[in-house]
Design a protein that fits this description.
Number of helices: 18
Number of strands: 2
Structural class: mainly alpha
Radius of gyration: 24 Å
Largest sheet: 2 strands, antiparallel
Length: about 475
């Protein structure tokens, strides 16, 4: 580049990025090839900032004197890079996190109003397991929708998934028969299966270095939605009635146009030259992960399904029962974020073992406590219950490096579907007046699942020194 041209362009620039080894990120697997980026003043290298925006390697200038800028003057792109995000993706991650909150809220509020639904349909308590299974069984499709997401690319499944969960969730209150309610629950579950794999792959495409903490930040959106919506829905039902549940679907419908602009548009996998899935190689670690995650799922589903019912049998109000699971899920955000950070710092294996044992042990104080102690113990339980959320997703994606959407679908969807079936089976044994055996079953299963962690291959649960640098 001629020096006069660079000087002319420098008049409108205060500083530029000078990434000596800046190359485009791999948007499909989220691995960044960025080197260290430094912010410097210069006259002759201003074109580097434009090149950096395009993902091109800048030319090194022989002209101009450079000096290091104070941290307060450094580029927002540099801040993104240091936080673990590829440059320019902070708003995208925030948008996906918000959409995740709304999607999981609309698709998971049913337990908060389940006692009222059973009364309105004149159905016994054991139907609770059937309804929750109908709601969550669609998540078993996530490996399939993950495969479809990788083949199609784009962001259509994320948008379609949020639309289906929001509309379906808004219509639950007008379902006056069990059959129609089950159809709507299945629709919501399928929408949920559409949303998650492509959303998680999109988040992974925006990250670089260690992924645990920022993946947790995205998953926190879902935990907040699952936590807030049951109590919000119970307040709507208590004050206005079941037909007004359409209110809970409005935020998601209004967010769909925003998501269409902010969600990453992923490239489609090559139809002929894409890497085939190595099923024989992945079978054993996949089986271990699915079993572990299925136990986590059935534990969570059983707690959120039967805690409100337990509260009703003790004479508590609908809102009171819903607020217990809201407390557990909201405080679970701490476990979600902390688990991602701990997996980056200590390794994945200790996090998985600690979560399984602690969650299983803490189930019992929750169900045998009374008064304010119920909410306190539920809050403590929420931390280990969601400590592994981001860790298991990343393991799933690492099991299937040739198809990360399928990997996250296995970790979340298939395991959640199996967990839903287990809740259905356990629910059929529930006595109308005594649901306590449910909690003994899931508490024992959770503690036992810690042994599965020891069977993971070492490369899936590396020590901190073996993990990629941030």
């Amino acid at each position: 580049m001629p020096i006069p041209s660079a000087i002319d362009r420098a008049r409108n620039h205060r500083f530029v990025l000078e990434p000596w080894s800046l190359f485009p990120s791999d948007a499909r697997n989220g691995r960044s090839l960025h080197s260290a980026i430094t912010a410097r003043t210069t006259l002759a290298e201003v074109s580097a900032s434009n090149r950096a925006d395009l993902g091109q390697q800048p030319e090194r200038s022989a002209v101009g004197r450079e000096r290091q800028l104070p941290i307060t003057h450094r580029s927002p792109q540099l801040a993104d890079s240091r936080s673990g995000l590829a440059p320019g993706n902070t708003r995208r991650l925030a948008g996906l996190t918000w959409a995740h909150l709304l999607n999981d809220g609309a698709s998971n509020y049913l337990p908060g109003v389940l006692p009222a639904v059973l009364v309105s349909l004149d159905q016994p308590v054991r139907l609770a397991g059937v309804l929750v299974a109908a709601l969550t069984i669609g998540q078993a499709l996530q490996p399939v929708t993950g495969w479809i997401a990788d083949r199609l690319g784009g962001r259509a499944l994320v948008i379609g998934g949020l639309t289906m969960t929001s509309v379906g969730g808004g219509l639950l209150g007008i379902a006056h028969s069990t059959s129609l309610l089950v159809v709507l629950l299945l629709l919501i579950g399928i929408g949920n299966a559409f949303f998650h794999p492509q959303a998680l792959a999109g988040v992974r495409s925006m990250l670089q270095g260690k992924h645990g903490l920022l993946t947790s930040a995205f998953l926190v959106g879902g935990e907040l939605g699952r936590g807030i919506w049951p109590t919000a829905a119970s307040l709507v039902v208590s004050n206005l009635g079941l037909p007004y549940l359409w209110i809970v679907g409005i935020p998601g419908v209004l967010t769909v146009p925003l998501l269409a602009r902010l969600a990453p548009k992923l490239p489609a996998a090559a139809k002929k030259h894409g890497s085939p899935i190595r099923w024989a190689e992945h079978a054993r670690p996949m089986a271990v992960l699915v079993t572990y995650c299925s136990v986590r799922a059935v534990t969570t589903y059983a707690l959120v399904t039967f805690i409100p019912i337990l509260a009703r049998t003790r004479g508590e109000s609908l809102v009171s029962g819903a607020s217990i699971i809201t407390t557990m899920l909201i405080v679970g955000v701490i476990g979600n974020l902390w688990g991602g950070h701990l997996s980056d710092q200590l390794g994945r294996r200790p996090v998985l073992i600690t979560s399984a044992i602690a969650a299983g042990v803490l189930v019992f104080p929750v169900v045998y406590s009374h008064g304010a102690l119920v909410w306190i113990t539920a809050a403590i339980l929420g931390i280990p219950l969601f400590l592994t959320a981001s860790t298991t997703v990343l393991i799933g994606q690492d099991i299937f490096p040739e198809n990360r959407s399928m990997g996250s679908g296995v970790a979340l969807g298939l395991a959640n579907g199996i967990g839903a079936l287990l809740v259905l089976i356990i629910g059929l044994w529930v006595d109308q007046s005594n649901v306590l055996p449910v909690f003994w079953i899931v508490g024992g299963l959770s503690i036992a699942s810690a042994g599965l962690v020891l069977t993971f291959p070492r490369h899936l649960v590396p020590a901190p020194s073996e993990m990629p640098p941030a």
